[in-house]
Amino acid sequence: MKITCQKAELAKGVNIVSKAVPTRTTMAILECILIDASTNEIKLTANDMEIGIETIIEGTIEERGIIALDARFFSDIVRKLPDNEVTIETDATFKTTITCEKANFTIVGKSGEDFAYIPIIPRNEPILLSQFTLKEVIRQTIFSIADNENNKLMTGELFEIEGNHLKVVSLDGHRISIRNIELKESYENKKVVVPGKSLIEVSKIIPGSTEEMVNLFITDNHIIFEFDNTTVVSRLIEGEYFKIDQMLSTDYETKFKINKRELLDCIDRATLMVKEGDKKPIIMDITDGNMELKINSVAGSMKEDIEIGKEGKDILIGFNPKFFIDALRVIDEEEVSIYMVNPKAPCFIKDDEDKYIYLILPVNFNTATN
Amino acid sequence: MKITCQKAELAKGVNIVSKAVPTRTTMAILECILIDASTNEIKLTANDMEIGIETIIEGTIEERGIIALDARFFSDIVRKLPDNEVTIETDATFKTTITCEKANFTIVGKSGEDFAYIPIIPRNEPILLSQFTLKEVIRQTIFSIADNENNKLMTGELFEIEGNHLKVVSLDGHRISIRNIELKESYENKKVVVPGKSLIEVSKIIPGSTEEMVNLFITDNHIIFEFDNTTVVSRLIEGEYFKIDQMLSTDYETKFKINKRELLDCIDRATLMVKEGDKKPIIMDITDGNMELKINSVAGSMKEDIEIGKEGKDILIGFNPKFFIDALRVIDEEEVSIYMVNPKAPCFIKDDEDKYIYLILPVNFNTATN
Asked: Inter-chain contact A103–B77, Cβ cutoff 8 Å?
């Protein structure tokens, strides 16, 4: 194999596919990036068997061939090359020479034959979404997936399509994040659970332009993200996702509007009082026109008042501050509406159009000491 | 005690003195920042017994007093306060209330009585140096102090004053860094060894302006850095520093000029071939007009040619790449001159005026395999 391409183009491609290189694996070949120049295009591929990424880079094929190169080592070399044309040449023993200006690296690659190619999946009609929308919706929900594998379904996100409507849901047993997106066109109904890890990697490599689109293909076992010159194939998580509709009651006893930035900063300050491992709740004392936010811990105490616009009953309720911070951080609106029922029922942060719903369970606290 | 000051001013002061808070200590009081408002000024102090820092901040003293507050906790709180006026008030039980806008923190401080104040040292005539010069000279030499305590003197830097000349030296047994600085005035001769750790902290907190000065005071056991509203007192390292003059022979067999950036980038690329713990040298093959730089390791090999302007003999010599990278990174000149004697004698990177001299010992390598 002999190919030439620009360093920037090669570095971009390597950076994209590197996201699918497993950090730990018993299959040494998976630690490689495959350069496939056996046809008319130069394709880079990496695959950790759950997520596979391939991307086509611009360049010239002088001699067709395939080579697998250690991903970490190869990407370190590419990154440090001068910003000029790079030549990659291999011989029959997989010895690979990488040349750029006067720099000349020789490393030993592997035959591409054992490489686990990305499965070829028959594609139906694509679902169209802007890169920006997909990247945003992942950011706005990914924080509330569960980080342990006790319940596999909780480590993924529900992608549900109904007509021209996409709903994305994540939950971890203490909170639920829901985002509703209107699509330009209508599609066949689908309901799948996508691994959170795959979504994290996808959101890292999507440029996120509002103009450029992502083509989504959903099959029984896979989801495919196609954008620019890149294809990401991820397995789906099997099983039926949680029925969340019954948790989303619309009744409330207390409703208030509050400045998002003020509330976020205030909770952020309150968390200073919580040392690691210590599970002190923040207490919200909500009365007409005012919320007193307070926290007591071994380290000391903190309290602060915030002006609110309240309807309904007064309430004294406690929360894990992190859950509030996570949700507030991904809401763009300046003012948010918060709905509460009682100190043991979940609270909702949501907008009037249900574009977003963040449900957070309160925690018990001893009123005597707070 | 009751004081008020602006958040930015308080945060700046806390950030400065925090550099002298020990990370590990058996004396809990040293983990504190002392706020001393017992006179007409608000002074913050921290002291780890080797380095002590005090800084005066602007503010109003409403009630005189002293309090010691846990440094980490206090600085976290200060950093997260709104950008406005802060009030710090203590009561007889050292309970401390920090108020800013509507935020209100209560933490428990300690009596300032047990605090290890910075020693009061009689000051002689100050040595004047611009903040920029001091910050630069530390950066340009600090990397070659030894990082273990086997030889205490190697963990510090020599500050030698002769007339209007300041020489700063560091060495670790494999290399020597020397910087010579011309002072505006002449001073009494002095020769002291300053702990590297103190210099690192000083260089972090000096703003580094070319206009503003640092007053240096040197006594038998201490060095004092005075700048802006801050005083840093560091112990000196006892003992006689190494005699380096006899190592600085001016004879050479090979001299060449080389573009600094090209050499640095090339060595940087070569280090890709060196995995951690592997002590592979880079080999420089210096002939008329050309240096071939190469490295061979288990991972593969790399070679690159760089144009040079050479006088004297050809030479084949090996180095630890890190030592070259460290020295080249702190040289501002676009072109450097390198002097060599033979493959076992130290090489020198230096300018014509001896403003800087970097001496690097070569390493043995097996010519057969390289």
From this structure: no
Task: Report the pLDDT averaged over residues B323-333.
Answer: 96
| pLDDT given at position A367 | 54
Interface confidence, given as ipTM, is 0.84
Q: How far B228 CA lies from chain A's nearest CA (Å)?
A: 31
Gap from B319 CA to chain A (nearest CA, Å)? 19
Residue B221: pLDDT over 80: yes
Tokens 């979404």 -> residue: A129
pLDDT over 70 percentage in chain B: 98
Query: Which regions in chain A score pLDDT beneath 70?
Result: 276, 366-370
A121-159 per-residue burial string, b: 16 or more CB within 10 A, e: under 16: eeeeeebebbbbbbbbbbbbbbbbbbeeeeeebbbbbbb
- Amino acid occupying residue B39: T
Interchain contact B93–A (C-beta under 8 A)? no
Contact: B108, A73; criterion CB under 8 Å: no
The token pair at B140 is 């340009």
CATH superfamily of the B248-369 domain = DNA Polymerase III, subunit A, domain 2 (3.10.150.10)
Contact indicator for A268, A308 with CB cutoff of 8 Å: no
Residues carrying CATH 3.10.150.10, chain A: 2-114, 127-239, 248-369
What 3-state class would DSSP assign to B294?
A: strand
Residue A114: predicted pLDDT = 83
